Amino acid sequence: MERLVRLRILSAVLRGLAVLLILRVLAAILANYPDYFPPNFESLFLQGREATFTGIYWPAFYIHIFSGPIVLFNGLILMSEYVRQYYGGLHRFLGRVQVIVLLLFVLPTSVVMSRHTFAGWPAGLSFVLLSAATGACAIVGVVHARQGRFDQHRRWMLRCYILICSAVMLRLISGAVGLTGVPYAEEAYIVAAWSSWLLPLAAYEVVERIGVAPRSTQ
Question: What is the reported pTM?
Fold first, then answer.
């Protein structure tokens, strides 16, 4: 019993730290918005993008930077057990908003922007596959919810949110790489692009399997 209490406390602390980290990175993302109105091509994200900031890219960029923070912040509310248990109507409403914004705005614009990503097609391919995986998790989660399989719904939507948080992981990994002064910037970005979603997703699957195994033997 004492061990179970310690594990619950540790889990709550880790969740709290994760929320603070996501909010911190989200605030940093929003703090960069003055560089985008009008576009400052000397800023970190837009540096050297004058040639690509034409055609469909620029509307995709602006749609993405407005819709991305919505699903990132909204996801925190949807992951709250308190909101789910005591404000079920709000949870369902925000869930619909999350899926609509994600499937209609965030993921399509991510695919458009991936064509001109830093480090070329190896990083771009990562973002295309990430978008496909995120959309698939959201759709499967919705199907399970409509069929009343809410345990499976929560698992798939948690996978979806983990993939959404790849934006947070990418900034953390890229920041760490920048601090260490890695000489091969493009290669490092490619590794960061793939690691930002594959590693957290793999970690979740391992933890999920470990958690399911003891329950199945009880």
Answer: 0.89
